[in-house]
Design a protein that fits this description.
Length: 286
């Protein structure tokens, strides 16, 4: 493969510092790119190679921290396949802690994303982010349902999400059905993320998510947890705040205000973990 541009120009002495972080089971590579050392044209290729598991660092996605004229900083978020997307809930919590730890922002901050500005509060390892305004709520989608589905709804929480209620979540074929929904004609051409949930009480549900861009089930998904809590609220099954138990075993908490089907001030809260800090070597990208 062709070397990425900054190594082609400067040689392998130009290794990049990065942090590996986890947000409730979602893992991310974070690079401070405010000096522009990784060119826009190289970002997708770097992400695709660095996010490979077993062959490189491995992650669900990669975040570049960049400069902003209006806010504390901006980000560019890429899924593991090298595709840039608007938003990632758990990624936004991790990047907020990264920015605070690196002195880029204070413990209360606002940063710019393709989905609009995001506010965050950092309290040690716990990070709470004010998510984009949800949109395009569609209940009881007009599609052929599997016999195991109790309902199928849609909402955009910065990125598109289908939410399917099932009885046997543990034994459910999440990957097969998630892939089918992700590529369903109803969501073409952008595709969608697919969440399978079971409501356990008025303030608790559990979730498994198939993520587009990762093209597999992940241990957690912040925007998916948010989507699941909100459509369950529309159905009158839960009230704020809602605890969402992820596949990885951790709980995310969704706080929101609602009037009919209009949601305001939706917060995503949960823990973060700094896994390690290291240098990304040229060989990890070959």
């Amino acid at each position: 493969m062709e070397p990425i541009e900054f190594w082609k120009m400067s040689g392998s002495g130009n290794d990049i510092e990065f942090w590996k972080m986890s947000g409730s089971g979602n893992d991310f590579i974070i690079i401070d790119n405010r000096d522009g050392k990784v060119a826009d044209s190289d970002m997708g290729r770097l992400v695709e190679r660095a996010c490979r598991r077993r062959e490189s660092v491995g992650a669900d996605g990669l975040i570049f921290v960049t400069n902003s004229d209006q806010y504390d900083f901006a980000w560019r978020y890429f899924n593991a396949d090298g595709g840039e997307v608007e938003m990632c809930g758990n990624g936004s919590r991790c990047v907020a802690r990264f920015a605070f730890s690196k002195g880029i922002a204070g413990d209360s901050m606002t940063f710019d994303t393709l989905a609009g500005p995001i506010s965050a509060e950092v309290r040690d390892r716990t990070v709470k982010v004010l998510m984009p305004q949800p949109s395009d709520i569609q209940m009881d989608l007009d599609m052929v349902m599997e016999s195991s589905w109790g309902s199928v709804d849609f909402i955009n929480t910065g990125v598109p999400h289908v939410v399917v209620q099932v009885e046997d979540l543990e034994g459910h074929p999440v990957v097969d059905e998630g892939r089918m929904l992700r590529y369903h004609d109803l969501f073409s051409p952008a595709g969608t993320n697919a969440n399978f949930i079971r409501v356990l009480g008025s303030d608790l549900l559990e979730i498994r998510t198939y993520e587009r861009g990762v093209e597999d089930e992940t241990l957690a998904c912040g925007t998916g947890a948010m989507a699941s809590a909100l459509v369950s609220s529309v159905r009158g099954m839960v009230t704020s705040p809602v605890k969402v138990k992820t596949r990885g075993g951790e709980e995310l908490k969704i706080h929101f205000e609602k009037e009919d089907r209009v949601f305001k001030r939706v917060w995503l809260e949960g823990s973060t973990t700094l896994v390690f800090q290291a240098q990304l070597h040229e060989e990890a990208l070959s």
